[in-house]
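=== How it folds ===
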Amino acid sequence: MALQFTMTDITFSIADYPEIRNRGIFLNTKIYEKLTPEDIKTCACNLDVWVGNALGIDSDEEMNIFADYAIYGYRPNGFNMAEKFLRLFHNEADDFELALLRYMRSAHYVIYQVEETNGVDTFNVVDIYSKVQYKIIDFKLAKSTFKGEIFASHLIDFEGFSIQTGGALIMAPEILGSDVMKQLIEFMKDAYPGDFLSYPEIGALLAKNMAAAGLKLGERAKLGRVKF
């Protein structure tokens, strides 16, 4: 399905981070509001948080994880909900937001370890599987994270820097070292040799399993370090 509008030629820089973050939160909310009741139920069932006839989420932290998965990890037609919003509801976005959505639709799931932080606004990380390095801009997290800390998150990549989408999960030993996690990684490596997380469907599978595990562990997994 071709997009029926002209993409704006906007290039983002690190200086744009505050506006990117504010507009990203605004767009996340709009995208989530476009989810159908069936979308919500399917996502909840995928994450094992559909209880009775309703979404079984008990806190804002859990909602961060659920909403992030629903927007970026849920791909019922081969693309995420940011892409769906861009295709169907682009008339509700201005030029800045349209340009931002172009990047949001390509968000990818990464499990990464912090290598260093400047303690102000930037920290450098490495993907623990592909060894790809990223410079992440985050005014809050850069002040509190530390070398060696491991996160799982969707990242949005711009020219020379990345940001987290909002549903970051600090990797608890119960998740990273679990037999289920090890089996999942081995399966993905066998099915998709090389940089297996570069395949969107594999990233979505990992996002689903990580979010489900995090929601199940609750506070022990330190959910929602980065606010949605």
User: Anything to note?
Assistant: The longest strand covers residues 108-117. The chain has two domains: 15-104, 108-221. Confidence is low (pLDDT under 50) at residues 1-5, 219-228.
